[in-house]
Structure formats: structure tokens, C-alpha cells
């Protein structure tokens, strides 16, 4: 008898213990919780100095409560302005950078302004007081505001000449893979102003108005 045949006979008589049974008994599986770790506590963010809820003298007021054009109390005029303001007022040909609804315009007395919108609540012939300017100057001197010049230093008035309108524009709007067409009509209107008065006050007039 060959060795291979003898080995097969011995394996049939004594089954190997390595073969696992077909029906093994059930085992109790212990479920482990994945939330066993301690919760992570994030540190509380300290408020920035520039965003303090209760501002003091050393802190800045919150940015969310800042106004676009805050009304600041009148400040005393510095010595340099007191010295050079009479020289600026004495020279002719003043110019000013006036701000109307956030738009800056560099104008002189007698110039016309065409606003890119229709100003509400005005009629032809009305006189408007323009009190927000960033630069006032002449040939040799320039007075710059931070960000605006004190309105007690100058007087600028504009007269409403009327309104203008552009020709009617028609734009055809289409959509891809559609035969339908739509017409969009637009007719923009403008307001025309003329700078009727521009005066630089003297130091005595400024101190009297304050």
C-alpha cells in the first residue's frame, strides 16, 4: 500500500480537529459605545477691542452700530487752519469737492452737475444747501477734511434747473432654445443742478456761528 493511500485512510478514521463544526453556538457580542470619549469644550472667544459691547474711552464702539454719516460735535479749529484760512478766503477762483448722496463732484461757482438719478422731492427753482465737502481749495492753498470739512467754514448752494430723460431704450431678451421674446424698456431720468453760490467764510464768521 502506498504512503498516500495509507495517509488518506488514517484521516478518514480520525477526523481532524481543525475542521470547525457546521453549527457553532451563538456568542454574546458586546456592543461598544463610540461616544465614550469626553466631550470637547471649545474656549469662549474673547470680544475684540474694536467690537466691544460696552465701549469706553479706550475702546472703539462696535462696527455694527456705526452710522454712515455720524453727526459729530463741532471741534475747535486748529492753529494752522486759523492761520491759513484767511489766505485761502482772500484768493479768488475757489473749487470744492462736494458730495451728493455719496457721489463726489469737483465744481466751481457757476458749474452744472448732472446727477445720475432723479432727486426726489425737488422742483425746478429750488435752492439746496450742500454742506458735505471733502476738499476746498484755491490756486495756492487746499483745505482737506478728515473725512469732511467743517460746514461752518464754507457755504455752497445749488439751484435745481430741472430734470432730463434719455431716449427710450428697448432691449429684446431671449432664452436659449425658446422662440418667445420679451422687450425690456428703460428710460433713465437725471437731475440738473447749478452751483449758484460758493463762499469761504472768514475766521470771525466761523467763530460767531459756533
TrEMBL record:
Superkingdom of this protein's organism: Eukaryota
Recorded GO CC terms: mitochondrial large ribosomal subunit
Gene Ontology MF terms: structural constituent of ribosome
Pfam family membership, one: Ribosomal_L21p
InterPro entries according to UniProt: bL21-like, bL21-like_sf
Family: Belongs to the bacterial ribosomal protein bL21 family.
PANTHER family the record matches: 50S RIBOSOMAL PROTEIN L21, LARGE RIBOSOMAL SUBUNIT PROTEIN BL21M
Protein's name in the database: Large ribosomal subunit protein bL21m
Organism, scientific name: Trichoderma semiorbis
